[in-house]
Amino acid sequence: MCGIVGLHLRNPDLHSQLGELVTGMLCEMGDRGSDSTGVAVYGDPTWSPPGHGCVSLLGVDASPDEVAAELGVSVTQLDATYLLTAQALSEDILAAARSAYPDALVAGFGADLAVLKGVGHPRVLTERWDLAEAQGWQGVGHTRMATESAVTPAGCHPYAVGPEQCMVHNGSFANHATIRRELRAAGVRFDSENDTEVGARFIARQLADGRDVEAALKELCAVFDGFYTLLVSNLDSFAVVRDAIACKPAVIAETDDWVAMGSEYRALAGLPGVELANIWEPEPEVIYAWRR
User: Fold this and answer.
1) In this structure, is the dihedral angle defined by the CA atoms of residues 270, 233, 154 and 67, taken in order, positive or negative?
2) Among 22, 49, 153, 290, which residue's beta carbon has the most beta carbons within 10 A?
3) Who's near 249: CB < 8 A, 6+ residues apart?
4) pTM of the prediction?
5) Each residue of 241-277: pLDDT tens digit?
6) What are 73's strand-pairing partners?
7) Using CA atoms, how far apart are residues 78 and 98, in angstroms rounded to an integer?
8) What is residue 136's three-state secondary structure?
9) Are 21 and 138 in contact (CB under 8 A)?
């Protein structure tokens, strides 16, 4: 079943409230999926400081101090996630981390982006992460009810497989195995057997080839079969699309201060000024996108 939430803040006065707002949204979706939880936060000055690259790692067989000394980075531990930051390109930090810890899971990477994942209910994990204290301009979250792959951090959304990019997904891709084989043949690596990762890798490849997010999502709709609601974000955009039947629930709300999306309205009900928002259900295969 799964639950999706996303919040894009237009009003800088709300940036200090991002974590609190996303925590409330995510916990409202706990009964749509309590197997695992993940969140991507854009713009927190502590987790991903300005001018720094950031890499989110899980499953590191070393202490934070050992990682910091090995790689020459700062390390913040949030439950099982290590956030590695330095005044360097995130791709360079990522290459060093993969060389030193080849068995670790890369949960996300990029400037201005921190990705946290874990197995468990969102009420438990958001407290361990102290997510309510986070700041920033955008947050994307997911609660998972596993249907086709293992309940592990590698199977947890968001899938943040390109720089400053992430994707969350409610539904299933019927032809993911075929597309996975094609991507692997083209040299794309995978961390899990989750069908969502196939969609995320496909989108990342489209963006790396120079397409914008709208064109990438249009291509995904043309290539992938199944039932899905997707939310895709990167450093300057926030986009939502549903499949041609639109059987997976989704609600969008928009005000002058923010744009928000949730699998159900109750995820949005606590947002400031929601009573004045323009609220609608996204149409099938219509791509809704916003930019900073």
Assistant:
1) negative
2) 22
3) 170, 229, 263, 264
4) 0.96
5) 999 999 899 999 999 999 999 999 999 999 999 999 9
6) none
7) 20
8) coil
9) no
The pLDDT tens digits of the residues spanning 88-105 come to 999 999 999 999 999 999
* CB atoms inside a 10 Å sphere around CB 148: 12
Token couple for 224:
């992938």
Task: Please give the structure tokens belonging to residue 182.
Answer: 């094609």
Q: Is the pLDDT of residue 35 over 90?
A: no
- What structural domains does the chain harbor? 3-44+123-291 (3.60.20.10), 49-111 (3.30.70)
The answer to whether 38 touches 5, Cβ cutoff 8 Å, is: no
CA nearest 226: which of 193, 195, 249, 183?
A: 195
Please give the Cα distance from 192 to 96 (Å, whole number). 22
Q: Counting beta carbons within 10 angstroms of the beta carbon of residue 10, is it exposed (0 to 12), middle (13 to 18) or buried (19 or more)?
A: middle
Instruction: Give per-residue pLDDT as tens, 46-82.
Output: 999 999 999 999 999 999 999 999 999 999 999 999 9
pLDDT at 147 over 70: no
The residue among 69, 19, 26 whose CA lies nearest residue 45 is: 19
So which residues are the catalytic ones? 2
